[in-house]
Amino acid sequence: MKQYSLTKIVLTGIIAGVIGGSALLYGQRGVENLQTSTQKVNTKASETSTIPKNATATTAYDKISDAVVSVLNFSQTGQRRYEESSEGSGVIYKKAGDSAYIVTNNHVISGASKIQVMMHDGKKVEASLVGKDIMTDLAVLKMDAKNVTATASFGDSNKIQVGQKVLAIGSPLGSQYASSVTQGIISAKKRLVEASSENGQSYGGSTVIQTDAAINPGNSGGPLINFAGQVIGINSMKLSSSSSGTSVEGMGFAIPSDQVVNIVNELVKNGKITRPAIGISLVELSEITVDDQKALLKIPETVTGGVVVMGTTDNGPAAKAGLKKYDVITAIEGKTVAGQADLREELYKHKLGDTISVTYYHQATKHTVNIKLTQKLGS
Length: 379
What we know:
Layout: E1 23-26, H1 29-32, H2 57-64, E2 68-78, E3 81-96, E4 99-105, H3 106-109, E5 114-118, E6 124-133, E7 138-144, E8 165-170, E9 180-196, E10 202-211, E11 223-225, E12 231-242, E13 252-256, H4 257-270, E14 276-277, E15 280-284, H5 290-297, E16 307-312, H6 317-320, E17 328-332, E18 335-336, H7 340-347, E19 355-362, E20 365-372, E21 375-376
Antiparallel strand pairs: 1-12, 2-3, 2-5, 3-4, 4-7, 5-6, 6-7, 8-9, 8-11, 9-10, 10-13, 11-12, 12-13, 14-21, 15-16, 16-17, 17-18, 17-19, 19-20
Domain PDZ: 276-364
Keywords: Hydrolase, Protease, Serine protease
GO molecular function: serine-type endopeptidase activity
C-alpha cells in the first residue's frame, strides 16, 4: 500500500478521510440511466442457514427466484403520460399486512415519477417509494402483497468467507433478461469504496463485498445469495476500468446484508436515515509513513492499525471529549478500528444522542473516553 507523509496530506472533510486508489467505480448508472410507513419490519440478518452438502446453484436459485423482481423507472413526459427511463432489479424481503416490501438501489429509482415492478411471472404492478438512502445507495419500495408468492431471507454477511460460492440474480441490460443468474465467489469480505451523492458530495468510504460473479448494468438492486438461498448482499456497482483505461473484469460489489437490514428497517420506520458523526477529519494509520508515525504520532510500535485524527469540528463531539490532531483512534465500544471502514461500521451502529466509548492513543498514552453523538453527518 502506498504511504503518505502527514505534511502532504490534503483533508477531504468531516468523518471522511483520504482514500487512495486509481480505479473508476460506477453504480450501474452507465446503462440504467446511461449514465411513509411507521410500521416496524422485523427483518433480521442474524442467522445463516447451514448450506447442505448437496447444494447447487440450481437449488439456491430455486429458493429465492420468485422473490427477485425487475424495477422499472418511469419519467413523466406529459399529463398522465410516462416513459420508461431505466430498469434495475430488486428483491422482495417482507410481507406485512396488505403490503410487501422490496429493497433495491437508490440509483435504480432516482428521479422516478412512477415505479413499476415486474414479478418473476412477468406480471407488472405499481410500487411506491417508502424511503431512500443516497449514502448506501439503498431504497425500499412497497407494493400490494396480494401479488407476492415468495419472500427472500437474509443471511449474516459477517459469516461469509473468501472463496465461498455465491450467485448474483437480476435483470442485466433490462427486464428482457429478467431472472438471469451468474455464479462466482466472494473475492473479499470488506472493501472500502468511495461513496458520493448525486450532486457530487463525498461521503467517504462505503464498505462492500467484492465478488467475481458477473454484475452488469440492470443487476443493480438484485440479490447476491449464498448456496442456502439467502441474501448476503445487494448488488450495487462494478469496477469497469482503472484510471489508465485498462479494462477490468470480475470485480463487482454488493452492499452487505447486515448493513442492508439496518437501513431498510429504519427506512420503513422513519422514511429516512439520520447518521451520527464524531466531528473529525482523518486518514488511515496504514497510509502514514513509518517515519511520520515515529516522529509526529509518537505511538507505540505495537499499534499497527487505526485512524489518525487530522482535525476536529469546533465544539464537536470529539473536540469536547479532548481528541486532538494526530491522536490515533483504535477502538469504538471495545471493537477494533483498523481503518476507516471499521470506524464507519461501528459508528453507524449507533444513533444520534447515543454515548459511545472511544479508545485512542495520544502519543504513547492510551486513553478511553465517552463521546456523546450530538452531531449529524454533514453538519
